[in-house]
Each structure stands twice: as C-alpha cells, then as structure tokens.
Amino acid sequence: MVEGVSVNARDFCILVCLMAVRPASGQTTPFRIEVVDGATGRGVPLVELETTGGVRYVTDSAGVVAFGEVGLLGERVWFAVRSHGYTHPNDRFGRSGVSLATRPGGSAKLTLDRVNIAERLYRVTGQGIFRDTVMTGGKSPIKQPLLNGRVVGSDSVLAIPFGGRVLWFWGDTHRVRHHLGLFETAGAWSALPGTGGLDPSVGVDLNYFTNNGGFARAMCPIEGPGVVWISGVTIADDTLVCHYSRRKGLARPLESGLARWNKKLNVFVKWKQLPLTETRHIKHHPVIVAMGGERWIVSGSPFPELRVRATLADVGTPDRYQRWVDGRWQQTKGPGTATQYVITDTDTERKIQPRPGSVRWNAHRKRWIAIFGEAYGESSNLGETWYAEAAEVTGPWTRAKKIVTHDRYSFYNVTHHDFMDSAGGRYVYFEGTYTKMFSQTRVKTPRYDYNQIMYRLDLDDPRLKMQ
C-alpha cells in the first residue's frame, strides 16, 4: 500500500509477480529454450535441463526454460536432458544432452521422443505455471500464470461439474508465507469447456475460493483438531455431497461423516456423522450409472465395490448400500469384502496392484474405461498410471496397459475428467499428484512437487491396443 493509493489484493499480487520476472534495468533478456514433443509439436512440461555445474532448470507448462544464468549466458553451455516418460538423443559420448550457444534474447528448440502413451500437457496448480514463458515475453493461456490463490502446492484432486461450472477440491495445500498451509480442503471453480472455459488441451483457469488474505480458504471446516480430507464428491437429488474424514494425518481417524454443499456459502457443511468403523459410504471418484431403470452412485478404488441409489435418503443411510460380491450386488450389514479384481499387464503378463483412480463411460470406445495408479510399480512405488476397459461398469476388469511412468517419483490419486473429453471421447484427460512423497528420490522438482499435472490420452493411439 502506497499512501493515497488503494490496491486490491489480486492486483497487488499480479504486480509483485510481474516485477519478480521482469528484467531489472541493466539486465539482459534470458535465452529461451523450448522443448517439444516430437509427435505433436507441443511444449513438454517437466523436462529437466542441467548444466555441467549442476545448475538445474525445469520447463514450465509450455515447455519453456528461461536461461539467464549470470556468467554463463553468452557461453556455449552443455545441458543434460531428462524427463519422465520422454527421451532425448544421446551425444557422441552416449550422454542424453545438448550443447547450446546461448545469447541474450536468443532461442533454441529441443525435440523429445515420447515413451509414455499419454501426453503430458501442463501443471494445473502451484506457483509459476507459465513462469518461463512470461519471463521470455510469451503469452500465457491462463489469467494468473505466476501465482493464483497464493497456492504453492495442492494434494489429490476432486472435480465435478455442478451449478453450471466445474468445482475443484484438493487436500492439504501449501502456502507462500509459511510452511504450514491449509489442511481443511482447498477449492476453486472454473468455467466448463465449451461454455467459456479454456480448451482442456491448453489449461484450466482456476478461480480460488479465498479468505481475506487472498489465500485459499477451507472448503470443509469441520470443527475439531486434525486435518479434514474429503472424497466421493457426487450429486444426489441435485445436491452436491461428499464423505469427510477428520483425522490425525495419515494415521488415526478422529471423525467420519457426510457433508452437503451450501450454495450461498460455497462450502461443505456437516450433514451426518458416521461411526469410525463404517465403510459403507461414497468414496474416491464415484460415477452415476443407470441400472434397472434407476440412477445409482457407484464408487470404488478404482473398480466398483459399492453402489447406492442417487438420492439423499439412500446416500445418508449405510444399510442401503450394496457391495459387488461374487458377480452380483448384495445388501450387506456392517463391514464387508468386495470383489478383488486381478489385473494383468497386457504386455508382460505381470500382475499389478491397482491404486485409486476412476471408471468412466467412454462414447468413443463404447466401453467403460478405467485410469488408475499402481502400488509398488517397476520404476516407482506410486508413479505408474494404467488404462483398462470393460463392457460393464463392473467389468470384467482383467487386463491393463501402462500409459504413464514416473521414474522414482510418485504420481498418485489419478482421475479421469470425463467433462473434458473431446472429439467424441477420443481424447480423454486425467491428472494426478506429482510428489516425492513415498518415492525413492530425495530431491524435489522445483515448483512441480506436490502439485497436479494434466495428461491427455488418445484412445486411437495404436500402442493402446488391448491384447
């Protein structure tokens, strides 16, 4: 605040960010390095370029690095090149890298071959999403490319179209000003693709629900100690509902229940508290399915294990939930065991251990498709993403194809956003949390760590053929 001048929080934030990336008087313009996908020509996010002195740069969501290293700019610089699921040709010494003649205001383009079947598109959350693009004079497709909602990192996405817009929710969320962030669920909204929203191949314009300080505010402020996580966001009787869990971190649950969306306050409020031992409730990423002339909410981890009629009365009554056991839906009393699906890698016949994901109907394939993670994968503990398909929502789910890999890095809680599907469902979009947690690496990827990354899968890719 300057005496006599009023600046609102958003404008002040934008001003500070622009000042941070704009070269000061006497400084030179950075050298622009663009890294593109050899198959699509699109910029590739999350590509690491490292100098011989160990200085590491990471491409932004447009595949751009702004290289302005004092003392090196103007020199011929050798960069090691590496990226999850992508490869770069080796030099004559067998090293993956390239030597570039850098100069102020100059540019270079590198081309990578994609090993992943799915294509990495952009980072959805966090600071500096299009930082290097802005620094080199480029135009960002999103309104706030540098800092949005004062959010630095966000865990585990949930997203659903509701009330004519898309509502987004995340778990624990990191802030700029302190190492302790928000632990009661953050949230935002965006316009739907095709009705004012961005093309999903370009990005997502998030409008955070914020507090008076401009930081993301609590979306499920359940009273009491501990963090509050939500899951199972779905619609029953035109009402947005979810399951909440107030707990002591990853360990001990303190409270469990159901919450309903308050349209006036834009927040979830407690609806029903459940016993801590109760497992019959909406969870993960449900899908609404027509069965026997009725609408059912089906949820699982990722494959269907529970269903309940899509009414508030049924969603709020555990005894009305049914489990998929022995090839049929059965009413159960208390805790029970749903069908365990045995999933095999279609390429190697290796059995894989599925992690949470989502199951959605696909108009292009005319089949149900599942996109999900894996526990204890070959290249990482939680970094592999898989694709499977079936004639019915209940399967049979038996074979899967790996579509994304992250070497010694986690990418978990993936979900397919079917409201983004394009070209009649040929292209599907999914995202997950990219983080060093639970991984074998000790070094965080700057700006990307603990954030959401969007991928696109072309269902006509010949490599996706299911054997």
Walk me through this protein's architecture.
The structure is a single chain. This protein has 467 residues and is mainly β. The protein has a domain at 9-123: Immunoglobulin-like (Sandwich), CATH 2.60.40. The protein is 5% helix and 42% strand. The protein contains three helices and 32 strands. It has helices spanning 9-21, 131-135, 312-315; strands spanning 31-37, 48-51, 56-58, 64-67, 76-82, 86-87, 97-101, 107-114, 119-123, 151-154, 157-162, 165-170, 173-175, 186-190, 207-208, 227-236, 239-248, 252-262, 267-274, 287-291, 294-300, 304-309, 322-325, 328-331, 343-345, 351-362, 367-375, 385-390, 399-404, 410-416, 427-435, 451-458. The strands form eight sheets. A five-stranded antiparallel beta sheet has the order 20-21-22-23-24, with no helix packed on it. A hairpin with a 4-residue loop joins β18 (252-262) and β19. The longest helix has 13 residues, at 9-21. It is globular and about 70 Å long. 45% of the residues are buried. Mean pLDDT is 92; it is low at 1-7 and 12-26.
